[in-house]
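Standup notes
- DV: blocked on the single-chain target, sequence here:
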Amino acid sequence: MGRSAIKSAGPLLAALALLCFACYAGAQAVPASPVERLVAMEELLFGLPQEGAIVTRLQNIESLMFGQAGAGTLPERLDRCWNFVQGDRVGGMNLKFKMKAVQWTIFGEVADGPIVPTLVDLENAVIGQPGLGPIGPRLDILMRLSVVGGEPEAAYSLVPKGSLVRVKLCTALGSMKARSGDVVRFEVADDVVFEDRLVLPKGTPVTAWVIDTVRPTKMGIRARVDLELKPVEAIDSSPVVLGVEPTTIAANSSVSLAAGEGIRALGIVGKEGVLGGLLSQNPELDLAEGVELFLSVMQTAKVLGLPVPKAK
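- DV (later): unblocked, structure below
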């Protein structure tokens, strides 16, 4: 593909990327149709949609969760399954909250992934073999082994606007290779704790999409990659919006950031050429996996947090 074709395709790809992010907010709510909700459940549990008739797929999920198939209409049965995993609303101590609590309590960080294989990995690591039966009682066994009293005393904490969150780049990023629509992955590098409650565990994934790139020139233009961040899923599955503001820019000494046009948009800016000035060739932006930087909480968030033991 020629350079002119790439340029003409760039705005379209950027628009598609922004559309994906617009759809993400809807994904935080319960999907509308029974089929959409079934697919969403399968992706949460297994990582991808399953095959077969709708009723058969739903029965498999019910057996996995409750030990038997349920009664009622498809929407009613899907409601019960969805609420079991995600809680009656985002912000409840749901199945995902409990799994993250076990991961963090035992290993000091969380690992993102579908619920069923993640649970099997936990059981193998802690007990030595996968459990049998519905996933609720299996997770309760791990809770009793890892959390005092068998269930954490969860309570709400406010994550203030402007709070800094240190993240680590999990995929190399450069102005030469990045293209609109590319996925860029980070993870939270340190536990984020407010009011003695863990709200963003270490290891929490942070995902972004490339929306534009700028190649450097000798005329003072520095390399730049513009990103749009997805809201981050807190420990209770509620969204936390990260971005860049003036305090974020000041907090980053090794990486140059710029605020974007939206609160979740940002630019990562390359360095100036060695000689400086208009005639010096500026280098490409080239960030290796593992590079760390700070982002800011852009909107105060209310999160159901896990109590953190106080240091003695």
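- Follow-up: Residues 1-29 have pLDDT under 50 and may be disordered.
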